[in-house]
UniProtKB/TrEMBL annotation:
Keywords: 4Fe-4S, Iron, Iron-sulfur, Lyase, Metal-binding, Pyruvate, S-adenosyl-L-methionine. Residues 72-294 form the Radical SAM core domain. Binds 1 [4Fe-4S] cluster. The cluster is coordinated with 3 cysteines and an exchangeable S-adenosyl-L-methionine. PROSITE patterns: RADICAL_SAM (PS51918). This is Pyruvate formate lyase activating enzyme. CDD domains: Radical_SAM.
Length: 351
């Protein structure tokens, strides 16, 4: 049993017979007394829902913002990234399963007690521009995000979530004014994939992508392309057309390479040719910015001006070089670069 210091959860309501109804993510768990929800980090104690991760930070690192990945949000800046254990999904290909899955299996919820104030102090001390809620799934450490993000804004820092997009609208409404940018997974474009591979559903994710875009956060989308599961050209085209039509051509799409992991060791890494084809599909759909990640030697890492095609930013690993972006404008045609804080990166050779 976790310490009695664990705190009361937000976004739930009591039901009859000591049960509670969690309204934090689209599983909408009904949890009997003395049991936990599907995520394993929200527990009903005598008719009251508690979070087990309010201040249990399991991972804390200073990262380039490009690592989230966010390529159009204050490029070249640092973000203090944190996560707790637990996740509301059970993706068999999870690359962070040692952090995300143990609570779902009834194992201990590990982490250090760090206060919101200490996290924000650490970000300021490290000269970070933002704090990122990432590594596992920020939805399930919602209360910690609310605490830290409010303090971060007071100190002039921005807030980023990296999420599977399976939260509720209630969750997004609370986060609305606190979050500045998001990278949301669009893992596939079929209900079957979400149900059978992730233990979730597609529709809430599509709805949330539209809601998030409407909230005015800077939004980028990531798809991990897994051979034989979501690499069908028709499915990729449907994803690209959804992003273009429902979110907007300026929303960047990151195509990430699969590596065998967790319970999915039965298939090879994504072939470079598949990633190249997916990149073409994104561009043909009219997306301005399509990126290929988790692989070297494949084009699709640089940011080009969507008006004249001039290469503005070139990336290597998580490093970024500014080739032609001056005060946020393309040096060749004067077009404003799409994103937020694009003026924050100085032109190569200037300070
Ligand atoms: S966050 Fe989601 S998975 Fe966890 S208890 Fe609430 S509804 Fe269930």
């Amino acid at each position: 049993m976790d310490s009695p210091l664990d705190d009361k959860a937000m976004l739930w309501k009591p039901l009859q017979n000591g049960k509670v109804h969690c309204r934090l993510c689209s599983h909408y768990c009904v949890i009997p007394d003395a049991q936990r929800g599907l995520c394993g980090v929200r527990e009903n104690r005598e008719g009251v829902l508690f979070t087990l991760v309010r201040d249990k930070v399991a991972a804390l690192h200073l990262d380039p913002v490009e690592k989230k990945p966010l390529y159009h949000f204050y490029p070249g800046t640092k973000t203090l990234s944190l996560g707790t254990m637990g996740c509301n999904l059970s993706c068999s290909f999870c690359q962070n399963f040692s952090l995300s899955q143990p609570p779902r299996q009834g194992k201990a919820v590990m982490g250090e007690r760090v206060t919101a104030g200490e996290i924000v102090d650490a970000a300021v001390h490290a000269s970070a521009s933002s704090i990122s809620y990432t590594y596992s799934e920020p939805t399930i450490f919602f209360e910690l995000v609310v605490d830290v993000a409010a303090r971060a804004h007071e100190r002039g820092l921005m807030n980023i979530i990296v999420s599977n997009g399976f939260q509720t609208r209630d969750c997004l409404e609370v986060w609305g004014p606190l979050i500045d940018a998001a990278n949301i997974d669009l893992k596939a474009f079929t209900e079957d994939f979400y149900k059978n591979i992730c233990g979730a559903g597609l529709k809430p994710v599509l709805d949330n992508l539209k809601t998030i875009h409407g909230l005015g956060w800077w939004l980028e989308v990531t798809t991990l392309i897994i051979p034989g599961l979501n690499d069908d050209p028709g499915e990729l085209r449907a994803m690209a057309e959804f992003i273009h039509g429902e979110l907007g051509p300026e929303v960047p799409w990151h195509l990430s390479r699969f590596h065998p992991s967790h319970a999915m060791n039965d298939r090879p890494p994504t072939p470079p040719e598949t990633l190249r084809n997916a990149w073409e599909i994104g561009k043909q759909a009219g997306l301005h910015h399509v990126y290929v990640g988790n692989i070297s030697g494949v084009a699709g890492e640089q940011t080009d001006c969507h008006e004249c095609g001039t290469t503005l930013l070139r990336r290597s690993g998580f490093g970024v070089r500014n080739l032609a972006l001056e005060n946020g404008l393309c040096r060749n045609c004067g077009q404003k670069a799409e994103g937020r804080g694009m003026e924050s990166i100085s032109l190569e050779g200037r300070t």
